[in-house]
Backbone:
C-alpha cells in the first residue's frame, strides 16, 4: 500500500532523508521510530506529497505521489505534528469544510461527518469551537479530519505528542481501532507507543533506515547480549578491576556507590553467561555478592544501540 524506493530528500546540501526503502502492506500499522531530527517528519511529508523527493519513487496504492499526486493524495489521510485546526470553527463546521475539500461527494458530506464524529466520540462536542477544546479532543478532531474521506492510508506524525497519559491511552486505542480498516504509518520517538501499537517498526537515524522488523524480533537480534546488574560489598576500584577480568564480561560501569559496596552494570559477550564465574571469583576475594540479576535486551536497547554513535561503535568492536 505504501512503497518507498531509494527515496532521498535534501534541503540544499542538508540531508533530510537518504536512500530510504520502505514497504507497508495493506492493513499493517508501521511505526517509524527515531530520535529528534532523524527524518521522521520529512518521511511523512514525502509520503503525503507535501514535499517532493530529490531522488527516488513513492507510491500509494500503486499511484506515484508526484506523477499521480491527486489520485495518491485521495487515498491518504494525514495528521501532521501540529494539525492546522481552525480555532474559530465548530467541530462539525470544520469537519464539513474538510470533507468538501477532500472531495467527498456533496450528497454524502453530512453522513460522512456524522459517521466520523460518532467514530471518534465527538458528537457531544460537535457545536463547540475547536479553540475551546482540550488538547486530547483537538487531537481527535485531527484524527477525524484525517479519515473523513475514508482513505486507505493513514499517516500520523507523533499522534500522541503533547497529550496527558489518559489522553494518550485513548488516542492509542483509537489508532488501534483505525488500524483495523486502514494501513497506518505513524512516527514516534516513544518506544512503548511503537511496541504497543505497531506490527512493524522501522528505526530511522540521521536520515537512514537502520532496521525494519517486528518489535519482538528487533529485541531478539541483540538478545544474548544481555546486561548483568551486580552489587558487590568490597572496595570500588579493586572490584571493578577484578570483574573486568571475568571471562565474558565486556564492559563494567559503576551505577551506584554506597558505604562499602558498589553497584555495577556489566555488558557481556553475546550468548555467554558469566554469572557463575563472577560468583566464584568474588567469593574467592571475600567480597559478598549482594545482588545479581540478568536483564534481557528490549526494544529500548535496540533503539539506543542503533541510534547512539558511541553504542554503535562499541557494537562494532564486539563484532570485530
Ligand atoms: N525545511 C527544512 N530546511 C532545512 N532543513 C530541514 C528542513 N526540515 C527538516 N530539515 C532537516 O532535516 C533533518 C530531518 O528533520 P525532520 O524534521 O524530518 O526530523 P524528525 O525526525 O521529524 O525530528 P523531530 O522528531 O525533531 O520532529 C534535520 O536535520 C532537519 O534539521
Residues:
Amino acid at each position: 500500500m505504501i512503497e518507498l524506493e531509494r527515496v532521498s530528500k535534501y534541503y540544499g546540501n542538508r540531508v533530510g532523508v537518504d536512500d530510504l526503502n520502505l514497504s507497508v502492506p495493506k492493513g499493517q500499522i508501521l511505526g517509524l521510530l527515531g530520535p529528534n531530527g532523524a527524518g521522521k517528519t520529512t518521511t511523512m511529508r514525502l509520503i503525503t506529497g507535501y514535499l517532493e523527493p530529490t531522488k527516488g519513487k513513492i507510491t500509494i496504492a500503486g499511484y506515484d505521489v508526484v506523477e499521480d499526486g491527486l489520485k495518491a493524495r485521495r487515498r491518504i489521510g494525514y495528521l501532521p505534528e501540529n494539525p492546522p485546526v481552525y480555532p474559530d470553527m465548530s467541530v462539525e463546521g470544520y469537519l464539513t469544510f474538510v470533507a468538501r475539500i477532500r472531495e467527498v461527494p456533496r450528497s454524502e458530506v453530512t453522513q460522512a461527518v456524522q459517521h466520523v464524529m460518532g467514530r471518534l466520540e465527538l458528537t457531544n462536542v460537535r457545536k463547540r469551537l475547536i479553540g475551546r477544546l482540550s488538547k486530547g479532543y483537538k487531537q481527535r478532531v485531527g484524527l477525524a479530519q484525517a479519515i473523513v474521506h475514508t482513505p486507505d492510508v493513514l499517516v500520523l506524525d507523533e499522534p500522541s505528542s503533547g497529550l496527558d497519559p489518559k489522553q494518550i491511552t485513548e488516542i492509542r486505542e483509537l489508532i488501534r481501532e483505525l488500524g483495523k480498516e486502514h494501513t497506518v504509518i505513524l512516527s514516534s520517538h516513544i518506544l512503548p507507543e511503537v511496541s504497543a501499537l505497531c506490527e512493524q517498526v522501522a528505526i530511522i537515524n540521521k536520515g537512514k533506515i537502520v532496521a525494519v522488523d517486528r518489535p519482538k524480533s528487533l529485541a531478539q537480534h541483540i538478545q544474548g547480549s544481555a546486561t548483568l546488574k551486580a552489587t558487590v560489598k568490597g572496595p570500588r576500584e579493586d572490584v571493578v578491576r577484578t570483574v573486568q577480568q571475568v571471562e565474558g564480561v565486556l564492559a563494567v560501569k559503576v551505577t551506584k556507590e554506597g558505604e562499602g559496596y558498589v553497584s555495577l552494570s556489566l555488558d557481556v559477550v553475546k550468548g555467554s553467561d558469566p554469572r557463575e564465574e563472577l560468583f566464584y571469583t568474588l567469593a574467592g576475594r571475600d567480597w559478598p555478592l549482594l545482588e545479581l540479576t540478568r536483564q534481557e535486551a528490549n526494544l529500548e536497547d535496540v533503539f539506543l544501540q542503533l541510534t547512539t554513535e558511541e553504542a554503535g561503535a562499541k557494537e562494532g568492536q564486539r563484532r570485530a
User: Anything to note?
Assistant: Residues 310-320 have pLDDT under 50 and may be disordered.
